[in-house]
Design goal:
Blueprint lengths: L2 H18 L10 H11 L6 H13 L5 H5 L6 E2 L4 E4 L8 H13 L5 H6 L11 E4 L4 H13 L7 H15 L7 H14 L4 H8 L4 H11 L1 H11 L2
Antiparallel strand pairs: 1-2, 2-3
Helix pairs in contact: 2-3, 2-8, 3-7, 3-8, 3-9, 9-11, 10-11
Bound molecules: zinc ion (ZN).
Length: 234
């Protein structure tokens, strides 16, 4: 194969991959689908109804990851400042943390399994430790209050989070795939459409890279439309 042919086939491969890889931003729920999902939570038997609603709201509006929800404690709620603080570290040795620790130790030569377990739980990256305002709507604020009245921490494991989301999606009879990470993407898209700027959006979602926030903002088209209208309707 000539240099040119190999370059063009690499490009073709990359292009094909870009077209066929599924990203969670493609599974974003519309506002209507999200409302249907929330409504359907109440069809589940108690206490699964409340747990499902809590998960859908903190994932689908505040952008929490599944692992963050399953490790959440009410100490993370700052009621005066109305902030949900995702910490750098929350001591834990649940099955999920142990499995993640084994993986981390396998990928890193100077990290022993014991040390990796000790550092658990921690969020995905350093930038994932963040403060999330929860007074965006009364609905959210009330849901967090009710959660704190019932629980000190999320009462189930990481896999239960997936199950609750699946149960709610089935009850809502939603087409397409609904899973915790697509709810996180739904939160991003929701704020991008509302016109939240790249830097605060990045901080809210805890990304180390600004480009991810810019991608969601570009897809939403809100910033583009606002800028063009401002330029043309002076
Ligand atoms: Zn854990």
């Amino acid at each position: 194969m000539t240099q040119h042919q190999s370059e063009s086939s690499t490009w073709a491969k990359r292009h094909r991959r870009a077209l066929t890889t599924r990203h969670s931003h493609e599974d974003v729920l519309t506002d209507r689908e999200f409302e249907l999902l929330l409504e359907a939570c109440s069809e589940l038997p108690s206490p699964r109804d409340f747990q499902a609603r809590f998960i859908c709201l903190v994932a689908g509006r505040l952008g929490l990851r599944g692992g963050e929800i399953s490790h959440l404690t009410t100490d993370w709620f700052d009621w005066d400042r109305k902030l949900l603080q995702i910490p750098q570290h929350e001591p834990c040795a649940c099955g999920y943390c142990r499995r993640q620790a084994v993986q981390e130790a396998n990928h890193c030569d100077d990290l022993t399994e014991d040390k990796a377990v000790e550092s658990r739980w921690h969020p995905k990256t350093v930038s994932s430790a963040r403060a999330i305002p929860f007074d965006l709507s009364l609905r959210l604020e009330l849901c967090l209050e009710r959660f704190a009245n019932r629980y000190d921490s999320f009462p189930h494991s990481r896999s239960t989070i997936n199950r609750r989301v699946n149960e709610a999606a089935e009850a809502a009879d939603l087409r397409g795939r609904v899973y915790p990470h697509c709810l996180r993407a739904t939160a991003t898209s929701y704020h991008a459409y509302q016109g939240v700027a790249p830097v605060p959006l990045q901080a809210l979602m805890g990304w180390s890279d600004l480009a991810t926030a810019q991608k969601y903002i570009r897809i939403s088209g809100t910033a583009t439309a606002d800028a063009l209208r401002q330029a043309h309707h002076r």
